[in-house]
Every structure is written in C-alpha cells, then in structure tokens.
Amino acid sequence: MEPAYLQTYQSGVLAERIADSQRWLAKCTLCPRLCKVDRLADEKGHCRTGRQAVMASYGPHFGEETPLVGSHGSGTIFFAHCNLFCTFCQNYDISHEGRGMPVSASDLAAVMIALQEQGCHNINFVTPTHVLAQILESLPLAIERGLRIPLVYNCGGYERVTALKLLAGIVDIYMPDFKFWDEEPARVFCDAPDYAERARQALREMHRQVGDLQLNEKGMARRGLLVRHLVMPGGLAGTRGVLRFIAKEVSPNTYVNVMDQYRPCGQAVGRSDIGRPITSAEYEEALRIAREEGLERLDQRNYGRRLLW
Asked: Which end of the chain has fewer CB atoms < 10 Å from its terminal CB, N or C?
C-alpha cells in the first residue's frame, strides 16, 4: 500500500490544497480558535506561530505506539507552540515556551528525507494542527526528493473538520488525542470548553478519510485511525464517555492507546486536582471500561504490562 499523498501529488490535488491552505493563513481559521490574523505577514494569534513553522526537534522515536515503532522507530518531528496549551503538558518547554527554530518548507522537506534515510517507518508530525499549511507546503519538495513512507498526523484532537478535509488523501495515519469528555475540565485546563464536541467531529472525519487502522505483514501501521486517551487523576478525563463514543460512534475496531503516563508537569505542579500521578486502580478502571465498552484493539505496551499486575 503506497502512501496516499503520492497519488494526490500526481493528480495535482496537492497543489490545490496548498493554495487553499495558504489563503487560510492570510486570515487564519485553521483551528477552532479562529484568530483571523494574517500569518502570511507573520502575525501571530493564539498558537504564537507566524509564517514559518517552528521545529523543536526530530529523530527516530521508540516510545510511540507499537504499530508505529517497529525496528527503526517512528520519524517524529516535534513542532513548537500549540493551539491547545494544556496546563499539564508534558512537553511544556516546547508547547508553552516555544523552544525551537523556525524552518522553511525546504528545511522541513529535508528533515523528512533524513528520517526516511535513517530507516524510520513513518513521518510523525507531533502537534501539527497550527502548522498544517506549512506541512502541506513542504510535501511536494519531499516527494520530489523521494519521500515514500506514511504520514502520521499526531494531534491534540482540537481540530476543525473543514481544515481536516484539506488533508484527505494526504495523511495516511491519524493519531489524535481525545482528552476530555466534559466541558468544565476542558475549560479549566485548556481554555477550550468546546473541546469534546470538536474532538467528536474530528474523529468522525478522520475515520471517514482513513478507516480503521490497517497493518502490513510485519505489523506496521500503513493507514487508518489510532486514538490516544490519557487517564487523568480523579476521573477528570471522562474516560467512560470518551471510550463509549469511540466504540459506538466511530468503530469498535478502533485502535486505542489508553495511556497511563500522566504526571504533573507545567502548571499542574502543586494543584490539588491534577497535582499527582494517577494510581494503579485508576488505570485498571480505565482498562475495564475499555473492555466493557467493546474496545479490543488496545495498544499492548501498557495493556499487556498492566494485566500482569
């Protein structure tokens, strides 16, 4: 299965999507914040990113989900800044403080090729929502230099469906978070009370584009949807609602990573509500909920280990 973007490039559709996304940048409405600033003129809105993407780091990553990592790692490109700014972000220095360097389309294409040449199984764009247009702009340059591995859109779940439609036939693997089911935690921790509704709409659209996660004969992801859900202290993530929605309204065959690695970072340190790691009991409850709701394709790194406890 060759990456979707090759045909989209050859047909001329990719060029049209690039042009469309550039027009959006002139009055930016790429994410639900709807800042409407002129990013082509280097104006900056909520995401604090102007004309150029800011890249924090890149390299093979072996801590991602099993179908992405394989023997040579997932080729991650971490972008600085964000459209969500969770107070507890574990990459706080990147997302909130903006650690990184501006990169041109040519620079970004060169990084993709370097990761492919290192043997990475995919190109994994981490926090790409606010730099969607810059990613699209770089793709023809990478394709012309020989890019041939799947593209992963690794996002926070706070998306606009109209923007996601620019990626149809381009992104091979969507990997969104679904962070919160209820309005109040999303408002308190992300200043995004509409988060859950945006995430629901986004997951439906992502699944419409790519379907359930498909693996090759070596167990590597080639196309499809993979959803992450981070278990929060005190049930603040609304795990039952999130997992029920995925099973009932997206697909019971969705590949889900129920994540156990929450720890207080950034502004979460010292808080009474989220200033502690989750307990084993909280995580076990989340796994029970996943099974009760009919989800069976759970990432085995956490799931298998916890079953031994």
From this structure: C
